[in-house]
Amino acid sequence: MTSLFKKAIRAGREPLQSATQMPRKHLAAIGFVLLFLAVVAPFTPSGDVSANRDAELPLPQPTELASDALPAATEALTDNVDEQEPEVAQPPSEITWAFYQVRPGDSLSKLMTRAGFSERDAYIAGKTPEGSLTQLFPGQTLGFATKPSGELTEIQHKLSALEAMVYHHEDGKFRVERQIREPEVRIVEKSGEITSSLFLAGQAAGLSDNLIMELANLFGGVIDFVLDPREGDTLHVVYETLYLDDQYFSDGNIIAAAFTNKGETFTAYRYTDASGRLGYFNERGESMRKAFLMAPLDFTRISSNFNPRRVHPVYKTSRPHRGTDYAAPKGTPVFAAGDGRVIESDYNRANGNYVFIQHGEKYVTKYLHLNKRHVKKNQRVSQSQIIGTVGSTGTATGPHLHYEFLVNGVHQNPRTIHKKLPKAKSLAATEMPRFKAQTQIQQEALARLISEQQATQLAKLNTP
């Protein structure tokens, strides 16, 4: 067929010969070629397409693909579509937060109106069965989250820096979630030397006033921080500091502490026993919580000590002074020296406002010249509970607390009676191995701090 086609082309290029002069087989080949061209020409690119649109030609039959070719064909089709029309990701809806501080007299309805929400939104939020939206207090913060359309999606009630209640708006009601933030805990070690008072030494060491008061309360059963401290005494404390978002938030718990007074060192370690009870104990496992405080108030100075022959400052006569006077500013908190029951809470001309507390069967403590009384007769009180404030009521020359201590009805010197009182409770012998294991790091830290302080003091003595 190919050779005949080539011969026909060559024959077309030569001068036309008469039919009678050409062999019969050549004439047949030329006829075949002409017939082929007549059929194919309309479909060639070089043909006139518009002239052949109405030609009634048989449609080609669809080619049947093999089954294993379908996935490849489908994938190729998908790829082409993706290349032509890429999908455009829709931007997520943006949530906007607005925070409002609760002011005196504010309610949920007022705050939501201020924030631009409808009364219906406030009604639905206020009907939430759980949570705290109906208990708002000045200083707290309320936050509202809205979509771009203005739809309320979430309410955050910030109770404190560490706690918040979150209300998620779903299907026309609110779902409540409580969120608690855990601050980062960092351990700090500080030491100080007494020059005049515990407070000044603590402040010089970089301790906060609250932490200094905690130290005073911790050792309040063994040290009188007015009369006992001497120049050169030292204090050491290992405690937690709390951080939020890498910013200082507050002091945490005292982990261990030591106070060296006139050469004797007192230690205290924070420990939770096997039954879950928390307390502070010395290295022998003895509780630092004694039956009575050495001093029953946040004192500043003592103006008069126990003196049976003391001359009364008002009546100018020799009258026994059966207690200790703690001079302090008016309003200074007065603490219960120990656990007990209030047996008297009243006023008279001599004592002014006074409170008497019974501790067990043998002991009674008395607190005179109070400005205000915070407890009533027959009320149960615990050690360090505030029972009143310092004043100058009754026969008094100035604001102070007159404190008395009685044993079986007999007045005793509050400064020395502690030596005669029963010893503090100790950890059980079976608890001591656990106590020593858990406080080993704290004991090592205190020992290091004490050693460093002693070396510093020695270097000062040897400096010419």
Automatic annotation (TrEMBL):
CDD domains recorded: M23_peptidase
Domain of life: Bacteria
GO biological-process terms attached to the record: proteolysis
Keyword Cytoplasm among UniProt keywords: no
Keywords: Hydrolase, Metal-binding, Metalloprotease, Protease, Zinc
UniProt KW Zinc keyword: yes
MF (Gene Ontology): metal ion binding; metalloendopeptidase activity
Cofactors required: Zn(2+)
Domain M23ase beta-sheet core: residue ranges: 320-414
InterPro entries: Cell_wall_metabolism_enzyme (IPR050570), Dup_hybrid_motif (IPR011055), M23ase_b-sheet_dom (IPR016047)
SUPFAM superfamilies: Duplicated hybrid motif
Protein's name according to its UniProt entry: Membrane protein
